[in-house]
Amino acid sequence: MTKPAAEAVQLFAAGSLKDVLAGMARSFEAANGNRVATKFGPSGLLKDEIVGGAKADLFASANMTHPRALHDVGKTGPVVMFARNKLCALVTPGLQMDSAGLLDRMLDPDIKLGISTPGADPSGDYAFDVFDKADALRPGARAVLRAKALQLTGGATSPAPPAGRTVYGWHVAEGRADIFLTYCTNALAAREQYPGQQIVALQECLSVAADYGLTVINGAAPAAQAFADFIVSPAGQTIFTNHGFVPATGAQR
Known about the structure:
Blueprint: E1 8-14, H1 18-32, E2 35-41, H2 43-51, E3 58-61, H3 65-72, E4 80-91, H4 102-107, E5 113-116, H5 122-137, H6 141-148, E6 150-153, H7 167-173, E7 179-183, H8 184-193, E8 198-201, E9 209-216, H9 222-232, H10 234-242, E10 246-252
Parallel strand pairs: 1-2, 1-3, 5-6, 5-7
Antiparallel strand pairs: 3-9, 4-7, 4-8, 4-9, 4-10
């Protein structure tokens, strides 16, 4: 009997998932013989590509909003929350601060504050949520932070870092940001490349959780669903935990 041809799966996924999902794709290929082609980038831009007709079988977003938007226009099946993250502050070496003093530093007019591009990249949207929480603590803080925040990455024309370098650590190392609000997993990756950079946790009153959503595009090959099942399986969730994410399976739209 002729062995069925292996299926190719086209995965569109948030840039913050690159390390974990690229490794999972290799494991899936080895176990099932189905090739996984990956495209990583800002979730909002990837969602727009799919709406515009780009060929994708599986979409893994850094929020629930973008996959739900695809579901709501009839392009995908259910949306499943598969991981959680949160924002941290990546801080340039030598800038003294702790969690309690972070908001003061962000409001300081002499401090360059970097974020991702809201709308295109959920990390930027989550940063705006932090600014909203800051406003509840200090009226007027939202306007100050939105006005000064430098949208350094996540946009359609944002500059790319040198090959092999994280964009967040690169911007901080090059002096374009003194503080960069990004996912804690991204901050950890940046500090591995730039050991002098600091990671400062946000106080609970400013903390923002990031829920990651996964959905299979209608008409996708069966292997796409199989890979999605692997992501939410206990084995897959253990891999996410090992990469610094908080597993969050079972929540569907």
